């Protein structure tokens, strides 16, 4: 090592870094002590440094030893401390193990306790369910006993009235005899018993429901034996004494008049054959251009008009070149046609003359007629044309034929024909007003503009039943002897009550439907006062076999005879539950009998579950007849051989063949009406040369099913081309795979290569062989056996149905994509997707709002619910799906028509939710519908009155009668201004107000009775417990709530204040009962406008909630908002602002920034900022509140900004609401 002198030379100047002056360097001897580590390292690794002394080496060793000793001591200290830590941790570990064992033991004990409690809970739930079942059973038994007692009482009353009436008649006759001087013999004066006469009843009363059936085992009464009961008309009804101007009006005439006024059955135009507008076009080659242009350009418009009202449209025409080969079909089509159009120019072929003779000459008044005459410029007509026109003019005595005389182009002529047909169809056939034309063209509403929402009726269901009844009446060509069975039915009607349901049993095709329809026809002629309710069930899984639709239809038929028809619920369970009650109510006021006929009750879906009312005691004047299929035939047509009519029987029927047929039809499987009818038609449809062969083939068929299969084969063989055979197979396959059948227009759409004459001829042939029929415009199977035969013959037992279903699904999906949602799409598409088990597509079709609207407005409520249940959605999730779909649809609505349709959809959704029993969720869509109609139409438009009516109905169901009354009055005012005082809409609103007043009177009567009991309870508690006992406060609270309900606010205020004083003394300051009284008293103060007195109560309520729940609980935020509202109403905005801000912070932290409560608070803050003059902040807050409301995923009962809305926001910052009785 060196010294510092080695670094600086003598005489060198050193600069001072800090600004000092320079100086001369000098030598300074400095000794530097080296580091021990550095010396140690040098000593060990290298040779000894020259010049180092021995003394320096020894000092290094000593220092190393001292360092070593120091490190050793540090190590020992470290080791001891770590050992101590280890021992401490081992002790802690042992302690934790013990704690773990203890906790494990406690956990096991808790698990055992939990299992025990769980078992106790399950047993308690099981006991609860058993108790509920026992209670339900007891309730049912009690109602049953009440009905039996009522029947017994009414029957005895009827007997007493009959005896009194007979007594009066006898006394009158006795007086007449005495007045004539005739000596009346008194048997009591005789000394012997020879003159005594004993009168014996013609028949004795048998045990209840032991009567037999028509050739069958005991009826449905074998399911349950009931006690013998009696029933008669209402006793008070027979004592009515009518005075005044209607004293001479009979009760039957009055009931008939009322029923006609309250007729809710749909009007089916007589000119429409089977729900189809059939336009028969007669043309020549010269006018074919007009026909082609009309079909290509105008037919789609007419079809859309008819489909929008639930009807079909079909052009029927036969080309001139092959018209002669379709003579029978042409005549049949003319008979079915709704209107006929004759297109002439200069030539008249023979086929045109024949059709004109049939349509224009023989029956000119049967249908609207249009004559299109294309003339030349000189207007000269040749001889045949002139003669034909003279004959037509001579037959048209009433001058009803519309003549279109045209001399221009073919396109102009086609337009003239279209204009005339459009006017006829809308006004004469469909019954539309001229002003209704444009509103019906859209096809979305289907005539629902006048729908009040009280009764949802399906036009097609009713027409289907009418046509089924008519077909059953004329469904056979054989002369069948039903007289003894008709006599049995008549005896059942005349039998004394109680009368069990009569069961008509028989094999398939045995004539049950024919017997019942013929009997109904005879009874309607003989007993005009008898009310008939009939239903003919079609094939399984069809609409006619849906039990809820059956009961709803029968119920609506009953409601025609009541003053009010607004009490019918659409909920399936309620419909099934309420039908016996409606039946009992009507039977008490109906003078004649009520006969219910259900044909093929065994085909009804879940008949055992939904038809239980049949085994309950029925009213005295109600009779029930049901038919059911059994394996053995009841011999309805026994000993009735085949007897074709004389026109059908020719010389080819020898006596030998008749005997052979008679022997063949005597077996159990061949002796029924359907087999005999089908056999006769198959034989008589063959030519003479093929008669013997076809007869032998038919005689080999031992049952109806094999005979049907033979008929199908024979029909296929009779067709001339493979194309026609293929068309027949396809049509029958589509009908078999569909829900309710297919229409002729749908067949023509699915098979464009098929011409109408070919289709008409094929349908005529299949109809003649009892295979298919046209019912309600749809091609359906005439009998269940025909459907089964087609499944076996053409669909391989049903395995090929998927192919035909896919064709129909594709066809109806195409209509959906073109925005053509008709009743056919709604009926078929969801059902087909359900049969294919395609849940995603089914849900997608249900979310098409117009499909669901169509199903609901036609009363298919239960069917719509069943579809949603199938896809796994409950009521709430279904409502959410619909609401979200409506929100998406609303974004695409811009025009006035689209907004009108949107309002209809919102209204339908609200009514649907109301019928589901969700009134709180139904309010929002109904209010939205009201907003749209007020904005898009006019605040005084009749549609606004309809929205108000629907919204009021929800409030009635919600028991908010004040709001409902206000809305009904507003709807009444709008209807009177729009229609006048004599319109049906005005009568509907008046009836609703009357029903509402009746409900309020009944409610007031119930509250009066409750007031008596609550007052007695309060007096008893005060006497026994003392006036300051907490139980007395409870009675005071109950009485105060009752007075508030009755709007007796002064008495309610006094009792709430007394209850508050008692609870303040007896209970702790944070007791829930005290908070309850504070809350309701504060609400009462606020309602009465006593805001100053309400403030301390709301403040105390806030304090209690903070102590009970903590300062950050949502309930505290609600109390803050309530108090802030009071401050705002008192104009103390500076006090309200921090409360709102604190409540907003609590809501955002606890519920999230998108919760509806956050939006409500933001809206109140926006209003407060607006009133303070901070408009920018108010706009920002209100915008955020609206974003939260629009993003809301579920239905909430919001406040609609409508001038007609009666509901207020829960946290409104406006002034105090006036009392319900105050003038507005």
Automatic annotation (TrEMBL):
Domain Nephrocystin-3 TPR-repeats region: 805-996
All residue ranges annotated as the Nephrocystin 3-like N-terminal domain in the record: 498-624
Primary site of residence: other
Listed SUPFAM superfamilies: P-loop containing nucleoside triphosphate hydrolases, TPR-like
Record-linked InterPro entries: NPHP3-like_N, NPHP3_ab_dom, NPHP3_hel, P-loop_NTPase, TPR-like_helical_dom_sf, TPR_NPHP3, TPR_rpt
Domain Nephrocystin 3 helical as annotated: residue spans: 654-794
GO CC, alphabetical: ciliary base; ciliary inversin compartment
SMART domains in the record: TPR
TPR repeats: 945-978, 1033-1066, 1075-1108, 1117-1150, 1159-1192
GO biological process: convergent extension; determination of left/right symmetry; kidney development; Wnt signaling pathway
Coiled coil residues, start to end: 82-180
Domain of life: Eukaryota
Protein name stated in the entry: Nephrocystin-3
Species this protein is from: Oreochromis niloticus (Nile tilapia)
């Amino acid at each position: 090592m060196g010294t510092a002198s080695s670094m600086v030379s003598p005489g060198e100047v050193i600069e001072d870094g800090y600004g000092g002056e320079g100086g001369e360097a000098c030598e300074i001897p400095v000794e530097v002590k080296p580091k021990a580590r550095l010396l140690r390292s040098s000593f060990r690794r290298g040779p000894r440094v020259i010049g180092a002394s021995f003394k320096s080496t020894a000092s290094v060793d000593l220092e190393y030893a001292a360092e070593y000793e120091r490190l050793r001591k540090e190590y020992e200290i470290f080791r001891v401390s770590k050992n101590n830590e280890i021992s401490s941790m081992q002790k802690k570990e042992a302690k934790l193990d013990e704690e773990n064992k203890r906790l494990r033991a406690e956990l096991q004990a808790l698990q055992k306790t939990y299992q025990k409690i769980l078992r106790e809970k399950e047993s308690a739930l099981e006991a609860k369910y058993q108790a509920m079942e026992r209670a339900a059973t007891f309730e049912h038994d009690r109602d049953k006993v009440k009905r039996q007692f009522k029947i017994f009482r009414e029957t005895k009353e009827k007997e007493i009235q009959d005896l009194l009436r007979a007594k009066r008649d006898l006394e009158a006759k006795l007086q007449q005899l005495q007045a004539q001087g005739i000596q009346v013999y008194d048997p009591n004066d005789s000394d012997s018993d020879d003159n005594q006469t004993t009168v014996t009843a013609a028949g004795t009363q048998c045990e209840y429901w032991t009567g037999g059936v028509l050739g069958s085992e005991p009826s449905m009464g074998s399911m349950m034996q009931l006690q013998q009961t009696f029933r008669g008309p209402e006793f008070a009804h027979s004592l009515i004494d009518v005075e005044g101007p209607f004293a001479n009006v009979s009760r039957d005439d009055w009931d008939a008049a009322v029923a006609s006024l309250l007729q809710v059955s749909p009007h089916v135009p007589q000119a429409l054959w089977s729900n189809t507008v059939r336009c028969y076009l007669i043309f020549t080659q010269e006018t074919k251009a007009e026909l082609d242009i009309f079909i290509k350009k105008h037919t789609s418009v007419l079809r859309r008009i008819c489909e929008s009202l639930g009807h079909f449209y079909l052009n029927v025409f036969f080309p001139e070149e092959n018209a002669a080969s379709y003579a029978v079909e042409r005549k049949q089509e003319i008979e079915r046609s709704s209107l006929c159009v004759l297109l002439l120019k200069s030539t008249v072929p023979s086929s045109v003359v024949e059709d004109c003779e049939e349509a224009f000459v023989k029956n000119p008044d049967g249908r609207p007629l249009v004559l299109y005459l294309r003339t030349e410029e000189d207007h000269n007509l040749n001889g045949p044309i002139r003669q034909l026109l003279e004959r037509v003019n001579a037959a048209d005595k009433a001058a009803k034929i519309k003549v279109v005389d045209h001399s221009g182009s073919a396109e102009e002529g086609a337009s003239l024909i279209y204009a005339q047909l459009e006017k006829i169809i809308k006004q004469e056939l469909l019954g539309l007003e001229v002003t209704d034309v444009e509103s019906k063209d859209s096809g979305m509403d289907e005539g629902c503009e006048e729908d009040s929402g009280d009764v949802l009726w399906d036009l097609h269901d009713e027409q289907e039943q009418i046509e089924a009844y008519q077909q059953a009446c004329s469904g056979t060509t054989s002369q069948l002897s039903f007289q003894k069975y008709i006599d049995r039915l008549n005896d059942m009607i005349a039998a004394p009550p109680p009368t069990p349901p009569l069961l008509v049993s028989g094999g398939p095709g045995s004539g049950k439907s024919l017997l019942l329809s013929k009997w109904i026809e005879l009874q309607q002629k003989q007993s005009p006062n008898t009310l008939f309710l009939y239903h003919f069930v079609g094939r399984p899984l069809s609409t006619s076999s849906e039990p809820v639709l059956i009961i709803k239809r029968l119920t609506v038929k009953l409601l025609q005879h009541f003053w009010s028809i607004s009490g019918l619920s659409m909920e399936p369970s309620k419909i099934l539950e309420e039908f016996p009650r409606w039946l009992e109510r009507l039977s008490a006021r109906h003078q004649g009998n009520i006969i219910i006929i259900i044909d093929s009750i065994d085909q009804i879906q879940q008949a055992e579950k939904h038809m239980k009312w049949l085994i309950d005691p029925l009213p005295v004047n109600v009779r029930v007849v049901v038919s059911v299929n059994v394996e053995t035939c009841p011999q309805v047509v026994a000993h009735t051989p085949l007897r074709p009519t004389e026109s059908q029987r020719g010389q080819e029927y020898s006596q030998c063949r008749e005997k052979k047929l008679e022997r063949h039809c005597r077996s159990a499987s061949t002796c029924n009406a359907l087999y005999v009818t089908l056999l006769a038609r198959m034989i008589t449809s063959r030519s003479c040369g093929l008669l013997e062969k076809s007869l032998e083939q038919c005689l080999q068929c031992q049952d109806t099913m094999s005979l049907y299969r033979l008929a199908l084969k024979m029909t296929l063989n009779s067709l001339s081309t493979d194309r026609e055979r293929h068309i027949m197979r396809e049509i029958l396959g589509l009908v078999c795979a569909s829900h309710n059948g297919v229409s002729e227009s749908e067949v023509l759409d699915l098979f464009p290569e098929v011409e109408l004459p070919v289709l008409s001829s094929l349908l005529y042939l299949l109809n003649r062989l009892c295979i298919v029929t046209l019912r309600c415009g749809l091609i359906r199977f005439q009998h269940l056996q025909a459907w089964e035969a087609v499944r076996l013959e053409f669909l391989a037992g049903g395995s090929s149905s998927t192919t035909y279903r896919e064709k129909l699904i594709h066809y109806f999906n195409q209509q959906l994509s073109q925005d053509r949602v008709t009743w056919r799409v709604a009926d078929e598409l969801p059902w087909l997707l359900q049969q294919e088990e395609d849940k995603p597509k089914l849900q997608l079709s249900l979310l098409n709002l117009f499909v669901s609207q169509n199903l609901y407005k036609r009363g298919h409520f239960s069917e719509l619910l069943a579809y949603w249940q199938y896809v796994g959605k409950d009521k709430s999730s279904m409502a959410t799906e619909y609401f979200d779909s409506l929100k998406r649809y609303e974004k695409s609505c811009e025009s006035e028509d689209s907004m009108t349709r949107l309002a209809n959809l919102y209204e339908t959704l609200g009514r649907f939710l109301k019928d589901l029993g969700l009134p709180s969720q139904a309010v929002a869509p109904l209010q939205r519908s009201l907003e749209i109609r007020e904005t898009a139409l006019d605040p005084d438009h009749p549609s606004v009155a309809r929205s108000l009516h629907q919204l009021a109905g929800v409030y009635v169901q919600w028991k908010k009668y004040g709001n409902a009354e206000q809305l009904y009055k507003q709807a009444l005012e709008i209807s009177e201004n729009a229609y006048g005082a004599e319109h049906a809409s005005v009568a509907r609103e008046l009836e609703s107000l009357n029903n509402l007043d009746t409900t309020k009177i009944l409610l007031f009567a119930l509250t009066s009775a409750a007031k008596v009991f609550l007052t007695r309870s309060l007096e008893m508690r005060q006497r026994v417990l003392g006036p300051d006992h907490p139980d007395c406060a409870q009675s005071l609270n109950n009485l105060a709530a009752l007075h508030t309900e009755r709007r007796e606010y002064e008495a309610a205020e006094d009792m709430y204040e007394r209850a508050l004083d008692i609870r303040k003394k007896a209970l702790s300051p944070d007791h829930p009962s005290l908070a309850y009284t504070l809350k309701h008293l504060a609400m009462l103060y606020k309602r009465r406008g006593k805001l100053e007195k309400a403030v301390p109560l709301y403040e105390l309520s806030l304090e209690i909630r903070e102590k009970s729940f903590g300062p950050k609980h949502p309930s505290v935020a609600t109390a803050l908002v309530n108090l802030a509202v009071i401050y705002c109403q008192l104009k103390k905005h500076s006090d309200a602002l921090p409360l709102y801000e604190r409540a907003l912070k609590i809501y955002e932290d606890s519920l999230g920034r998108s919760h509806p409560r956050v939006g409500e608070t933001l809206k109140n803050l926006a209003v407060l900022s607006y009133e303070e003059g901070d408009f920018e902040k108010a706009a920002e807050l209100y915008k955020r509140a609206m974003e939260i409301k629009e993003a809301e995923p579920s239905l909430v009962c919001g406040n609609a900004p409508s001038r007609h809305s009666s509901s207020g926001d829960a946290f409104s910052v406006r002034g105090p609401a006036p009392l319900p009785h105050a003038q507005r």
